[in-house]
Each structure stands twice: as C-alpha cells, then as structure tokens.
Amino acid sequence: MRDHRYDILFEPVRIGPITARNRFFQVPHCNGMGYRDPSGEAAMRRTKAEGGWAVVCTEQVEIHPTSDIGPFIELRLWDDQDMPAIARIAEQIHEGGALAGIELAHNGLNSPNLISRETPLAPQHLPVVSWNLDPVQARAMTKADIVDLRKWHADSVHRSLKAGYDIVYVYAGHAIGGLHHFLSRRYNNRTDEYGGSLENRVRLIREILEDTREIADGKAAVACRISVDELLGDDGITRSEMEDVFGLIGEHPDLWDLVLGSWEDDSVTSRFGPEAEQEPYVTGLKQLTTKPVVGVGRFTSPDTMVRHVKSGILDLIGAARPSIADPFMPNKIERGDLADIRECIGCNICVSGDFTMSPIRCTQNPTMGEEFRRGWHPERISVKGSDSSVLVVGAGPAGLEAARALGNRGYPVTLTEASRVLGGRVARESKLPGLSAWIRVIDYRLQQLDRLDNVEVYRESPMSTDDILEYGFDHVVIATGASWRGDGVGRWHTHPIEIDSSTSVFTPDDIMAGARPAGKRVVLFDDDHYYLGAVVAEMLAKEGFAVTLVTPVPQVSQWTTNTMEAHRIRARIMEAGVDVRTDTAVTAVDATGVQTACRFTGRTGHLDADAVVMVTARLPHDELYTQLHERSDDWAAAGVRSVTGVGDAWAPSTIAAAVWSGHRFAEELDVPRNDDPVPFRREVTQLSIEPVFSTPVSVS
Ligand code: FMN
C-alpha cells in the first residue's frame, strides 16, 4: 500500500493539451540501440511505460543529415523512411500505458556528419565539438541556412505528430542541441539579429518554439529542454541569464525540461555528485513561468522527490538513470514496495553503451537492453522448468543475482559464501572513496533474497569439490570471483615482469584488505584503465603516501571517457597530489623502485619507490570449476547435471557484466537450447530498395 506521504507524486499534471497521469517523467536518454535496433528500443521504452512512468521519451532524434552525430547510434527522423521505427516506439510506449515524448534535435556544432558527409552548421565558423575531436569544421549559418533549419524542424514535428507522439521537444541543452550553441555566448559571436544581445541569441529558440507550437496546434504538447547554467561563468549561459531567458520565452513551451551544463555535468556519476545535485540551479525558475517544470538529479529517494514538488522546485520528477536501473520505480513507490527498488548506483555504465555504440547496459538491471532481443523483463521471469536444485558457490554480484533470479523462478537454491561478508568485490570496492553508492548492488539483492523462502544463504562456508559432489545438487554455479594479479601481466605485458623481492608489490586486493606499504613512496602501475587504479592512487595519496601513477596510455583511467568521468578523475587525483606519468610502462621492479619505458620511443627511466601497486589484470578463481570438470565422470553418481562458471570466476569484467552473467544463467536454466549461433533476436537492414549502381563514365 502506498505511503500517504508520497500521494503528491501520483497527482496528475497538465502539460498543455495533455495530462500526465502522475509526476514520473522519463526524460530523453540514448541507449546505443536507436536506428540500428529500433524494436529493441521500443521494447525497452514500453517496459518503462508499464513500470508506471507517466511520460516516456525517446533519446535525441536527428532531424536531418546535417545533424548526424554518428558513430553514436541515436534515432533518426531524416525523412519518411525513418517513420516506421519512430512510430513503433510511440506505439509501444502507448501500449505500456504512458505518454510518448520525442526529442527532436539538430546537433549543429556537435555533429561531425561522418555518415552523411554534409557540412556541419553552427552559429559561427568553428571546429566541431564532437567527442572524437574529428578534424571537421562547421560553417557559420547564413540566413538561408536558418530558414532551412526551421523547415527541417517543422517537417520533423509533422512527422512526430503523424507517428503518434504526445510531447514534441525543442532541444536546446547539453551543448549538444544546436539551439544551445545559438543561446550561448561561448559559441555565438554573430553580429546579426541571431547574435549579440540575449534577445537575439534566444531568437532561434523562440522561432522554433513558435513553429512547433503552431504545428502541434493542441494535438501535442511542446517541451523545451534547456541547460540552465553552462558552469562557465560569464563565458557561457549563466543561471541569472536563464532568468532573463524565462522572461523572454517562459510561456512559449507547454513544459520546461531543465538540465545542467553539458551532458558530462548533467549525468554526473555518484563518485562526483550527490542525488539532487542540480537543486540550487533549478530552484526559482518554476516561479518565472506558469508552465510545468521537469528536472533531473539521479532521483531515487521518494522523500527527495516529494520535497522537490512540495517546495515548488519541480512539477515533474525527471529521471534517466534511475529509470534504467529500475523501470518499475513509480509502480513500486505506488505499491509501497520501496525495498524492491533497484536504486541507480550512479556508475554511468549505461552511458558507456552509447559511447561504445552497443546496446545500453546497467549494473543494477541486467535486463536493460535485453527486453526485445532476449525477451528479458525487469520484473517478470518464467517459472522454473523443472524441480532441479541449484547450488551457487560465491555471493558476489554474479552469485547474488543468479540466486535471486533463480529464486524468483522457484528453484530451491543454496548460496554459499566462503567469507563472512556477502557481496564479493562490490562489498570491498564500495568502501573505497566515492564508491559507497555501489553497495546498493548488494543491498537490493540481499533484501530480495530475504523474501525468498526457497533460497538459503550460508556464510563462512567454503566449498570443496568433494563437498559439492557429496551434496548432490542438480546444477552447480561457480561464482567465486577473481583476484588482482601482482606480476605485471595486463595489456602491456603479456608475461610476468621481473620483480625484485626487496621492493614490496601490492595488488588492489591487498590494499582493499587494509595492507599498506612500509615506506612512503609508491608507484601505482595502471594497465587496467578503468576506475580502480585512480581510486586507489587517490586514497593512498590522501593517506599521506607519495604516489606516482604510471600508465602506458595517454589518459588516466582512459576507459572512463565512456562513463564521462575521465576529466573529473584527473582533476581529483591532481588535487590529491598524485604525480602522473602517462604513455609510460613499468617494465621491471628492482631493489630501489621501478624501471620504466616510454610507450613511443622505448626510452628507459627509473622511479625510486618503496612499494609498487599493480593494477593490471585479474585471474579468475576457477579452481573449483576446473576440478569439478576434471571429475565429470563422478557427476552422474552424485546427481550433478551441470557445472557452470559465471561472472568474474568465468572471465573478469565489469560488475555490470557479472550481474548480467548471473542473471543469464538463471534465465536460461531448463530453457530448451537454441542452436542458432546468434543467441538473441536482431533486426537486419531490409534490402527493400532496388540497387541502382552508377555507371562510371569513361573519358578517352
Ligand atoms: N539527454 C538528452 O537530452 N538527450 C539524450 O539523448 C540523452 N542521452 C542520455 C543517455 C544516457 C545513457 C544518460 C544516462 C543520459 C542521457 N541524457 C540525455 C541526459 C539525461 O536525460 C538526464 O538529463 C541526465 O542523465 C540526468 O538525469 P538522471 O540523473 O536522472 O540520469
């Protein structure tokens, strides 16, 4: 039953000509599926609609080939050929019971147009601000270009209405939507009526809002997504300037959707920003308009949501990442099942789907992106296919998820953990600076296991091969995790390096277990390139060690460009006093420190150190798996039918991958084997148009 304190979240909100049935609003977010996997996207959005979000939006939709931000895979509405995909998504959102919003985007300066090869368009001549630093410049838009842009936008509004959308966006946010570039002094140095004064810089947004409203004509609501502060001081959009923007066009849209700065600022990870971080920036803007306001802030606490509504900051609770982690969050709040909410941990692995052009993934929600292609659902799983019993060995992220999902299917499950602490690597890593929110991966699963009478959990229960064969479970899942190796093997060295035993070598596991170097000078060799190297470096530096981080790539924690954290990580470790040596490898550990080599020239060097921390690679704990398979002749007598490795014990990867792997085992147990080499459904390009190849003209 719903707690009455949360009633206000379930009040309807009028948005122009339409009414949202509650205050839960899934704001636009990309998902790495877009034009390539539109049915995958449609199923994902539908799941959220079923989960209680009153409004479910698409990601940014490119309205024209000059707005091509490939290789990112977004939706397109370049012409009518894109209509079936766009319409299918609206239809599925409606089937799920929500209103459908579409974020029309002309990306201007942000679109390198690599696929279309059209010339990028911007307020002034400037290099494009694409993520890959593409050597492409945008051309300053002429008046004719502006007329064209208005027409393309208008065309896309017509198409959106035809496709059935209830809310049509004008996108002026994140320094991505091209209208943002017109508004911002950083990008707009025009001297015509579209540059200079605020009134001029706002002109194109105003015109496009007016065009959109005229076409929507009461059939759909018009939303405007805008960055309320670019966090650049007077060089960009400021919060006080935004008040003037509201003075000029505050009544133009039917809904304001407020975001902060660039996408990196807006989707800040939990390591660098708390829930509701945007509150000071958005507070007060609602009072400058009669139109409803939606805002974001990795909202997972219904109390925070209520406070935002009651104190007049927001009308609608916007969410991207919390809706990814738990597409059913609104329904769970409504039912009063708060412990059932899979709270977003703010790791931004969802963002990495976009950056790696692969379907979206989520640490908390392994079904995200798998709704269509594998038929997975965040709240429903098929009932068990037999009376088999399952033993899960290891209660890390993979084991916990396997036990939870198998338990939900109705199997009798025994989960054993060698240590006293449940959670494996997540329990250890969430104690590191900035990673405390990650404990939610364990909390959610333990709370769920508590409710399952058919799952028994045993701590301090190390299992041997003999034990397992003696107990005679039908299926055995090995989820025993992995350990960091200390021999230097990783991407750079594929064989152990020379290590002089007089210099102590630590692994992240040693450091997380509380071990510390005896001396002060520490070299940390990061050949892993995700978060851990920099987190450990920061922690040791703050504890007073003199830390030098050595990495063979150009950037610290380079892979975190995919979670949009790399720049913050670098700033944080600089502030912590860590000395950084990029493009350098540790090649040996000697009696006085480490030998190094420049990645490019091979030039060698030496760094004095009392200790070395190797953050290079991990080795799976697969001994049990291997031993059990060596004794496969004994399985029949013991009643064992399968032994499967999952998560890091099978192949070390991200926490998201471990959770997914445990979940996959649970989904597929007793499901008839699919012999198709592609274990999921996919959409392939229909060769529907007769090819007409141009005939080369020969010149004699
Ligand atoms: N915002 C947009 O306006 N358009 C997008 O296409 C878009 N893509 C996103 C993709 C991902 C994976 C995420 C996490 C965010 C994206 N955003 C996009 C920003 C979100 O809409 C939102 O403003 C931001 O993540 C903060 O909200 P949250 O804390 O609820 O995630």
From TrEMBL:
It comes from the Bacteria. Residues 507-591 form the TMADH/DMDH/HD second alpha/beta domain. Keywords: Flavoprotein, FMN, Iron, Iron-sulfur, Metal-binding, Oxidoreductase. Its cofactor is [4Fe-4S] cluster; FMN. Residues 389-485 form the FAD/NAD(P)-binding domain. Residues 9-336 form the NADH:flavin oxidoreductase/NADH oxidase N-terminal domain. PANTHER family: 2,4-DIENOYL-COA REDUCTASE, 2,4-DIENOYL-COA REDUCTASE [(2E)-ENOYL-COA-PRODUCING]. In the N-terminal section; belongs to the NADH:flavin oxidoreductase/NADH oxidase family. This is NADH:flavin oxidoreductase. It comes from Gordonia jacobaea.
